[in-house]
Amino acid sequence: MGPVAAANGSDGWIEALGAERTALGRASTAARVADVLRTHVTEGLLAPGTRLSEEDICAALGVSRNTLREAFRLLTHERLLVHEFNRGVFVRKLSVDDVRDLYRFRRIVECGAIARAGGHGLDDVRAAVEAGEVAADEGRWADVGTANMRFHQAIAALAGSARIDESMQHVLAELRLVFHVMAAPQTFHQPYLADNRLILELLESGDLAGAERTLAGYLDVAEAQLADAYDVGARG
Predict the structure, then answer these.
(1) What is the layout of strands, in order, in the sheet containing 81-84?
(2) Distance between CA atoms of 78 and 218, rounded to whole angstroms?
(3) Do 226 and 128 share a domain, yes or no?
(4) Range of the domain at 228
(5) Is there a single domain that holds both residue 104 and residue 211?
(6) The whole model's pTM is what?
(7) Mean pLDDT lowest among 90-99, 121-130, 194-203, 226-235
(8) Buried b (16+ CB within 10 A) or exposed e, 181-217
(9) Same domain, yes or no, for 120 and 160?
(10) Which residue of 47, 61, 107, 202 has the fewest C-beta atoms within 10 A of its own C-beta?
């Protein structure tokens, strides 16, 4: 029986999957490497324009160059990295058009998640708010930014969709690259601590419409701040 005939048998699909085993192992490892690098971007540890050394990363993570290059490919598809011919792989620098598109996505997803939220699933929202407040009290403004990312991930999770959760992880990693344009992280992040607390309190009280309105206004202000910072940078 030929391979096509076998694949058409009752167990043929099992045999066909076996042919993919090696590739799946590589992809699984590459996905884990991509997760590590994406987290570093989301937490502000990798700034836009950073050159990623294959040799250094392979040594640090104990992976092959082929695995790392597949991880790079995945993150390039997510618009976090860019390959420059004869120069290497770099963390991507976003444009003001990227900022506007990211916020367009966030309004639809985050405000929509709040509109459909029940009175459950707020533990992660509360934990992110509290983590941001503690970090601010201790003057750790990069950690305030990370807590803010977790707050918005938790807001999107109120939708109860694994696909939205995954999409938000990618979008928030891109967004953290945008935040690097702000020269004074304390000035940028501090006002939003009170907004995050207010949104949490509105959600806890069941005022979903109020929470949605507050978040929508918050996103409008943040987008304008970031767009202005890009304009200043372009003029400078």
Answers:
(1) 51-52, 88-91, 81-84
(2) 25
(3) yes
(4) 96-235
(5) yes
(6) 0.78
(7) 226-235
(8) beeeeeebbeebbebbbbbbebbeeeebebbbebbee
(9) yes
(10) 47
Task: Please determine, for residue 179, whether its predicted confidence score (pLDDT) is greater than 90.
Answer: no
- pLDDT number for residue 39: 87
* Residue 188 within a domain: yes
Using DSSP's 3-state secondary structure scheme, residue 44 falls into: coil
Contact 61, 36 (CB under 8 A): yes
Q: What is residue 11's three-state secondary structure?
A: coil
User: What percent of the chain clears pLDDT 90, i.e. is strictly above it?
Assistant: 61
Residues 6+ apart with CB under 8 A from 8: none
**Inside any domain, residue 4:** no
Span 39-48, pLDDT tens digits: 888 888 888 9
Q: What is the pLDDT of residue 18?
A: 58
Tens digit of each residue's pLDDT (9 = 90 or more) over 74-124: 999 999 999 998 899 999 999 999 999 999 999 999 999 999 886 677 999
Is the same domain home to 80 and 136? no
Q: What residues contact 111, with CB distance under 8 A and at least 6 apart?
A: 212, 215, 216, 219
**Helix or strand (DSSP H, E) at 4:** helix 3-8
Task: Please report, in angstroms and rounded to a whole number, the separation of the first and last CA atoms in the chain.
Answer: 70
